[in-house]
Each structure stands twice: as C-alpha cells, then as structure tokens.
Specification:
- It is a single chain.
- By secondary structure, this protein is mostly helical.
- The protein has two helices and no strands.
- It has one domain (about 1-55).
- Helices cover about 95% and strands about 0% of the residues.
- The two termini are about 20 Å apart.
C-alpha cells in the first residue's frame, strides 16, 4: 500500500504544474509534468510487478 500512497501523492503534486502548463502556457511546468508522469509510469510498473508476485505466491 505504501507505493499506492506514493502514486496518489505524486498525482496531487503534479496537479499545480499541469494547471500552469495547460491554462497558463508555462512550458517549464510542462517539462515537470512530463518528468512526473514518467516517474508515475515507473511506479505503476513496480506496483504491477509487486501485485503479480504476491498473487503468484498465493
């Protein structure tokens, strides 16, 4: 569950930068959003692997 909490925190942290990029045209915020989304992708993959491993052990 710790990693799932990290996903939620990461999404909420990206919300301000997403607003700056989409509504204010701040391209630096777009770069931060892209980096955060890459981190989110990697974290989601780690969760998927953890769930699969736990399921296979059961």
């Amino acid at each position: 569950m710790k990693k799932f909490e990290e996903v939620k925190n990461l999404v909420s942290a990206l919300e301000a930068d997403a607003d700056k990029f989409y509504n204010k045209g701040n391209s630096a915020a777009g770069t931060r959003v892209r980096k955060g989304m890459q981190d989110l992708k990697n974290l989601a993959q780690a969760i998927r692997l953890e769930v699969q491993d736990t399921k296979n052990k059961a």
